[in-house]
Amino acid sequence: MKINYELNGGIFSPKNDIKIKFYKDLYDFINKHYNQVLKKIEFIDFIHLEPYLIGKYAGKYFLEEKPGTTLEDQSEDFFIGYCYKNNIHIHLINLLISFFENWRTIERCNELYADDFFASSWASMVDTAKYFKFETKEQLKNSKEAPQIKNSEVIWNFMTTYPGAVIETYDTNESKIAVPIPKRDKYLFLGWYKDSKFRISFNGLVNKNLSLYAKWATVVSLHSNDGYNTFDELYSDFLNDFSLVIKEKVTKDSVLNKIHGEVCDFLVKSYGGKLNAFFSNKKMYNKWIWLINYLQNNVNDNVEKQKFLFQNSKFNSEPQVRYELNSLFVGRFHLAWPKTVDYSGSGIKDDLVNSTASLITKKYIQSDKEIILPKRFSNKKIIGWSLNREGTSIILKANANTHAFKILYAIYEKE
Question: Which residues of the chain fall below pLDDT 50?
Fold first, then answer.
């Protein structure tokens, strides 16, 4: 029996097949066992997140941190242990364990347990996301990864191995077949159908020659356009306020320190209780405590989280908060005391900036269709939507071909 595939703009990709299945199981696991964690993130957004952001949202639940142990020792309260106990993705996970060890060794990471997959849930999640992200050598070579990673044939061999991938079948004598999940950039695959109108879904059963039609949908993001425009704008505003309170000019200048790495002017001039004094100012506390809460939410350990609490006019650990802000501002991490979260990854600062908007929602659009955009947003009347914040070109409708995975900014009536 012959099978014909109508991909409708998509392509077959064995890595995409295992990526979507692995991420869907991870996404569903987190939503089922850790309610509300991913409630604001649609699956289509989740699979398009940069590795460091996937680490931020899913890293805490990826595996049980037990250095020196094996897959068999994992608790099923975490995703990797759940997979082992239910015998899913086993071959892929074993590849990811070896991939992680080789990546960290080639990258010359030298911290304790650096190459141990089970030592850090966040690090293992991030590097797993990197395995899925890079599909061509050109993508890897044009990335910000270390030169020894970009030029490693060992790493590339791992990245082009796809355990458990389903390969498309064109001719079969079987009565039931598995079909792969195809890929289309910035679209979500909704399933295979037996007709071009997408009325009869394919259940895997084959009793005659047939054609299968791929159904797709994409999303457009509707942005309230009332937060910070860029991270640089946010950073400038914070430094202006900090300078005002401490009565000393604080700049974006930074210097390299042999022990602490890149140190910004804020870190130097906030020494000696000045950050505590800044947040003791009621106006500044009300304006900026959200930023501290954002930093705190990036930390997984509950004991470490307590360091960010501001009570009785001081942080439980002012040095921790100062260095955390420094790592955010310079886009790096601090491995000496006090250790901080890694803020060097792509998308982290954009994610922070977007969090300052009062409202961001998603609208699904089926392939080749269009939708009418709302005329009110964030409780305000708008004149239309634009691909830029300035509103140089106003649109009232969005279509899949033009606006797939784009951000549309609300343009308000002038008061």
Answer: none
